[in-house]
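Risk register update: the risk of archive-format incompatibility is retired. Evidence:
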Amino acid sequence: MIRGSINALLLFSLSLLAYWALFGIFNDTVVMFKYLNFAGPLIPLCSLLLVLLFCFLSKGIFIKITAVIVSMPAMVIPFYILHLDFNKGEYKEGNYVELNFITFNKMGHNKNYRDIFEIVNCDEFDIVQVQEMDDVEEFKSDVGPLIHDCNIIVNEDDKGLVTFSKYKMETKETNGVNLIEVEVSEKIKLYLVNIHAVKILNQPPIIQDYLINSLESLAKDLNAPLIISGDFNATPFNKSILRMKQNFNYAKSPFFPTMNNSTWPGEARKFGLLGAWIQIDYIFYKNLNLIDVFVHDSSYSSDHYPMQAIFQINVSSALK
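Archived output:
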């Protein structure tokens, strides 16, 4: 009797995950789907464990085959979503300048400034965009002259968004987006947007929709090298990330079957000691060539792992 009840519950769970895979991905208006979308990268493993347990507890071959068939959508479709990419490539013939770029959510209460300095270092990296850095003055005081080569811009609307660069920068605002103009050289300008989006789990999806709408408008109006990066607090299964992929090039590393783009949770979380599970930090771009992208092996005392990309800027496409 107990075994039968457990099997019924397992089969129901497999059916629910299959329904999500077929009809719920990118649908954040339904609360259940929104939570499953956030956990999307883990669903194939969950479905596999459920079907294995079901087959172990069940005796009939027919019911076992049925369970395997029911489990397939939740094990196969998520891998397709993780590989979903609308990139058309940016390569053009011409002269290039190489750019070493990092985005990193350092975690608000992370005060290990010497660890953070390994990332926020303008001698090592050309541009570093940081989220949750409301304590930037404490950081500067702690590391002192070590960051003397950094130009620094703090977002006026969100003091936790800080951009460090060895290049001169100034703030502009376009379509309601806080835009940073970087003077890479006399002939090259690059534009940046530093993102710390509201958590998709805590707010209605329309809140992230407003952000994506503004970024889409920016993309239409700005015909110049552009990088949009940061903590989007959403996974590739949430609609906001789908829309970003549709409108911008998506910096991703090749991964199969592992998820090398996963950035959360970091070592600062107890459940992050085994490594990152999901990706919620991203780098999107346009009018640039992507040479390489990867997630760092250390989270530098944060609950996020830094994401690094190396770009080439075409001199002719970035003229003033």
